[in-house]
Structure formats: structure tokens, C-alpha cells
Amino acid sequence: MLGAIIGDIVGSRFEFENVATPGFKLFSPDCSYTDDTICTIAIADAAMNHREYKDALVDWCSRYLDPMGGYGGRFLKWLQSADHLPQASYGNGSAMRVSPIGWLYDDFHQMQDEAMKTALPSHCHREGIRGAQCVATLIYWLRTVRITKDEVIGTVKQTFGYDIPDLKEVYRLGNEGHFDATCQETVPAAISCFLDSNNFEDAIRTAILAQGDTDTKGAICGSIAEAYYEIPEEMITKAYEYLPADMLEIVDQFYTTLQGHIKR
Ligand SMILES: [Mg+2]
Asked: How many independent structural domains does the chain possess?
């Protein structure tokens, strides 16, 4: 989950205003957590503390109603609606928030079922569900059976039907000013960035240099990279400086839960 949070914070200042260039500073005063972090915290809280995903999303997003970059228009409407009826979105929001599920469940089918449930409140379109399940499953495969990078493209294609684009194609679109906002575009692009990386920091940098929805590509790529690489201690320390106390409590609970539960 910290992989997602770090990707979000580092990518936050490049989503709308600045353009990331090679060698960019990872953490600056212009960075902040955004909706990706808030929703990731909500999903972890729900899964660990036996809350409904919908209730936790509404609770956490209402606590932080105006984060840097705001919320997507449809999500905000859903958030502020009286009844929070399921919404058939295929935006990349279901994939950016799902990472805790790939870690918290050791049974494969339960993990996939929970990943689907995290999408249902606001992203119940089949593409919204597919994006969430793919990210959680890839994290699960990387941390349990340790699939290799060479196996990722074929396994993701076979299980989820995504074609993982070449990184050059991802960069070409980003450099043309194209903004990716859907699961079916951001998830394969973030996987492509992960596959091209050499370590955790490089994965984050590769995703953010791809431009477009930088914080969400950073969050998804970072969440996958966490299952494959060690996160440098100094990046964790830096990210903690941006998080309010109630979010840190959930992060601490998450990693306390995983100790003894997960072999890394
Ligand atoms: Mg965001």
C-alpha cells in the first residue's frame, strides 16, 4: 500500500500543471497525497476493520473532501449523493485504490472476490472491476508465487485480456498530451512501466515520466513494484511526512497485520 501512496505523492505535482523531466525531484513542497491515497486508506481500513467498502470510502473521502487535484467529477457526485447507489464507472479509480487487497488475503479466490467488491460501490462497470482485480492479482502473484517479469505479459493477457503496450507507445501518448483516465488504459500502461523498471524508485520515475494521469499511474505502478522490490527506507520516511495522523494509523495497522502473515 505504501507503494501506491508514494507513487501518488510523487506524481501529484505533475498531474495538471508541471511536466516531469528526467531526474526530477521525488519529494518537493508542491507534493501532496491525493484521492489515490485517501481511497487506498479507505480500502485498507474496510478490509482490516470489517467495514463495508462503500462506508469506508464515503467516510474517508468526506473527511478529506478537497484534496490536491480533487476527485473525478462522477466520483464526487457519487460521494455527495444521499444514497451512494452503485455507479458503473470504468475510471482508473478502482485500480488505484485496490492494492491492500493483494496483500491482505492469502486465498486466491477470496482475494479476487474482495478486489471485485472494492470496485462495486463506485466502479461496477466490468472494466472497473477488471482493473481492480488485475492490479490486486498481479500484486498477489508477485508476492506469493513470485512470477517473473517475463511471465507477467502472458499471464495478464491470459487471465484479464489486457495487452500490455510497449513503453515507447505509452510515452508517445503521454508526450502528445493524451490524458489516460480509464482502467483499460491506465492499468496496462502502469504494468508496462513496472516491467521496464530496475528498482522501486525507477518504477515510480518511469510511471511519472509517462505523463498523463501521473499520480494514478504512479500509484498503480508503485503498488505493483512494492510486491517485487524493496522500497528504500528514505522514501518511506519522506512519504510519512505528508500523511495526516489518521491515515498513518491505518498504514501502521496494515504493516503490523502483514508481519507474520506475509513472507517477503
Ligand atoms: Mg489523484
From this structure: 1
